[in-house]
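Q: My labmate handed me this sequence with no annotations at all. I'd like to see what the chain might look like in three dimensions before we decide whether it's worth expressing. Could you predict it?
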Amino acid sequence: MGVRYVSSGSNTFDEINGRFIFVGTDSNLKDSLYSIDVSIGNVITRVPFPVGLCQNDNLGSLVLKNNALYALLYRSSFQLQYLETLYPKTGVQSVNYSIPGFQSILSGSQVIDKRNHTYNFVGLGQIQLISKLYTVDLSNGATLRSAIVPNSTNQSHAIFHLKQNSANNLLEIFNAFNSNIYQLVPVNKAIGIHSFIYTLNRFSNYMPFNSIYNKSTNLYSFETIDSNSNFRFCNYNANTASLISNFIFPVLADTNDNVLNYKLIIQPELFTNYIGTMKL
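A: Here is what I predict for the chain of 280 residues:
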């Protein structure tokens, strides 16, 4: 394919047509939007990305819903963020709706609520630099909610790996500032409050972006680093935060290789049912 680098957080999976869609960079540092058939590994489309934008504009945070690809666009000339519709076959985007009040997104926090037809993400405010959980209506671009998250007196607390669970609620990992304590927390989208907290054990750090949630088995899975600096893939029960497995991952012949940007096809218990991109 000629891909040398992959943009973390700028990828999505087409469950209906079995396509893995991501932004890749070639050896000439040119970005393209790739669509890959996951059953045979063939490139379906490769188009320049982004198309028709200025140098300081930025387009990313891709999510697919019913063959429509949504993304967030930062327009430097207006200093505004927009919710976009993107066409995977051409790379052309249509400017839809401006989203006031935030300057940047927490990479990898975007998630689609298919039942309520909303785009959810964590954005950093323009003025007070406070992170908020935004809920945007995909039909008309209206910002339905923008709750402070984590809803805490300490904005240095960290959140990551936002997921939509089987009950149509949001899950995330919460890390208290300057601590090695990580907790799995459901989040109230309206007010940003954690409804209950489970502590996750047996790892000392995490890898951003590399996570999945399986609604059928209620497994919340992501890549971690243990106390011996081994990379592991941990599978937790999303209701109890009990550890199901934490095998060493990835196991590759060349230690300079890496696997990232996971998407779930069937079951996360089986290693062969992950798809992802390899960074060389």
